[in-house]
């Protein structure tokens, strides 16, 4: 006669109530909470990119939305629109770079904890 299936045998939960899978699941849940917290911090952050020593600034949030643009009147020359366009592009590029740095700072420590030795998860 065959024995009934015992799922705890798969996860090592049968001995003294110790269940290594439960610990792994708890770690995964903690990691998920930290990841969500970091994502919320990034979304709420204000990031400022600039060009021309601050003559043009672009403000945005961590989600990619541009919330403000400031242009010093000194760079508004109807005969030289190209310079203003270049400064605006430079400020947007700087904003993007700073946004990536912010995400790396917030998410970097979490990425190191992913996969904790599990096969196929980068550890």
Automatic annotation (TrEMBL):
Record keywords, A-Z: Coiled coil, Cytoplasm, DNA-binding
Parts forming coiled coils: 21-48
One of the record's GO cellular component terms: bacterial nucleoid
Sequence ranges of Gly residues compositional bias: 110-123
Source species: Gordonia lacunae
Annotated InterPro entries: YbaB-like_sf, YbaB/EbfC
Region (Disordered) residue spans: 1-21, 103-123
Cytoplasm among keywords: yes
UniProt KW Ligase keyword: no
Cited function: Binds to DNA and alters its conformation. May be involved in regulation of gene expression, nucleoid organization and DNA protection.
PANTHER family noted in UniProt: NUCLEOID-ASSOCIATED PROTEIN YBAB (PTHR33449:SF1)
Residue stretches spanning the membrane: none
Family: Belongs to the YbaB/EbfC family.
Pfam families: YbaB_DNA_bd (PF02575)
Name used for this protein in its record: Nucleoid-associated protein CA982_01235
Self-association and partners: Homodimer.
Domain of life: Bacteria
GO molecular function (one): DNA binding
Annotated compartments: Cytoplasm, Nucleoid
């Amino acid at each position: 006669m065959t024995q009934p299936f015992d799922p705890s045998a798969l996860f090592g939960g049968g001995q003294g109530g110790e269940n290594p899978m439960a610990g792994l699941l708890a770690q995964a849940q903690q990691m998920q909470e930290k990841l969500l917290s970091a994502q919320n911090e990034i979304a709420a952050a204000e990031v400022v990119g600039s060009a021309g020593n601050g003559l043009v600034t672009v403000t945005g949030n961590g989600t990619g939305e541009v919330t403000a643009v400031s242009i010093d009147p000194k760079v508004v020359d109807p005969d030289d629109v190209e310079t203003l366009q270049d400064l605006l592009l430079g400020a947007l590029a700087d904003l993007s770079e700073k946004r990536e740095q912010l995400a790396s700072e917030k998410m970097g420590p979490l990425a190191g904890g992913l996969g904790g030795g599990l096969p196929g998860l980068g550890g």
